[in-house]
């Protein structure tokens, strides 16, 4: 198992070398209690889930701009839940180079998403008032397959509160894998359920994308507390102007929560390939 970097403050704008995170086997020892008497995934199950998520494919992952609520939270950690209630989601992300189809090791993967009521940490006031969202399906041609995220239409946010829940980063191991423990995301007007992800290779942002979920699972989870009290959801995957099939996370039950896996193919040298 790699070195433990939990709690370190490492800027993603710096070159990070010589570090690694949990291996696939380490996922089984990650935080998060499981319901008694349930079947839990094995290491082989996790590998199979990642394989079914696209390990054998090397097409560039569909990109998306970073959205209005990104900032460098400067938190290297795997469990990003803090005090946020919700259905546990363990998330395995494998990053590979889109040209060579090889694992991208020592890359930094950041994720951030809203809580069960649609709020973002660092921007609670702004996320309460932001109800516009991107264009719905039909008003947009969908995401481009390569986006220069350093020149995207969204600047990094200057945080307006000191909250940092549901934000964190991990460094890929020799298999290109990171893992997070979080909650199933909630929703807010104008968007489907999603998680933002950004990959940094060296000192460059090489991929910004979003992770999404099967709508049958969204319906199942959002009918449970604390999500059920948040009413009025209208935008599903098919209506969302950013949704792309390559953004779908493969999900299986994991005790009283879920385990998700996805493979991201990043243009690590940023030549558009």
Automatic annotation (TrEMBL):
- Outline the extent of the Intradiol ring-cleavage dioxygenases domain: 72-126
Give the organism, scientific name.
Answer: Nonomuraea rosea
Q: Which InterPro entries does this UniProt record tie to the protein?
A: Intradiol_dOase_C, Intradiol_dOase_core, TAT_signal
Oxidoreductase among keywords: yes
Question: What Gene3D superfamilies has UniProt attached to this entry?
Answer: Aromatic compound dioxygenase (2.60.130.10)
Q: Which UniProt keywords apply?
A: Dioxygenase, Oxidoreductase, Signal
Domain of life of the source: Bacteria
Task: From the UniProt entry, list the residue stretches annotated as the region Disordered.
Answer: 123-144
- What is the recorded name of this protein? Protocatechuate dioxygenase
PANTHER family, per this entry?
Answer: INTRADIOL RING-CLEAVAGE DIOXYGENASES DOMAIN-CONTAINING PROTEIN-RELATED, PTHR34315
Q: Name one Pfam family in it.
A: Dioxygenase_C
What GO molecular function terms would the record report?
dioxygenase activity
Task: Show which residues constitute the signal peptide.
Answer: 1-35
């Amino acid at each position: 198992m790699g070195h433990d970097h939990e709690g370190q403050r490492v800027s993603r704008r710096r070159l990070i070398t010589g570090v690694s995170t949990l291996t696939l086997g380490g996922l089984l020892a990650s935080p998060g209690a499981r319901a008694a008497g349930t079947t839990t995934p094995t290491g082989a199950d996790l590998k199979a889930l990642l394989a079914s998520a696209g390990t054998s494919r090397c097409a560039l992952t569909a990109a998306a701009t970073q959205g209005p609520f990104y900032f460098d939270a400067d938190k290297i950690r795997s469990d990003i839940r803090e005090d946020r209630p919700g259905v546990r989601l363990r998330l395995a992300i494998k990053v590979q180079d889109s040209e060579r189809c090889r694992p991208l090791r020592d890359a930094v993967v950041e994720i951030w998403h809203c809580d069960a009521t649609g709020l973002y940490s660092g921007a609670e006031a702004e996320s309460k008032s932001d109800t516009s969202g991107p264009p719905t399906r039909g008003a947009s041609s969908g995401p481009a397959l390569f986006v220069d995220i350093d020149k995207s239409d969204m600047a990094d946010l200057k945080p307006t509160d000191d909250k940092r829940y549901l934000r964190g980063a991990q460094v890929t191991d020799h298999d290109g894998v990171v893992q997070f423990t979080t909650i199933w995301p909630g929703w807010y007007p104008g968007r489907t359920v999603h998680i933002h992800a950004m990959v940094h290779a060296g000192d460059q942002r090489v991929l910004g994308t979003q992770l999404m979920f099967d709508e049958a699972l969204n319906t199942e989870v959002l009918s449970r507390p604390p999500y059920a009290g948040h009413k009025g959801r209208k935008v599903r995957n098919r209506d969302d102007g950013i949704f792309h099939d390559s953004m779908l996370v493969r999900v299986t039950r994991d005790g009283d929560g879920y385990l998700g896996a996805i493979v991201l193919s990043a243009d690590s040298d940023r030549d558009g390939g």
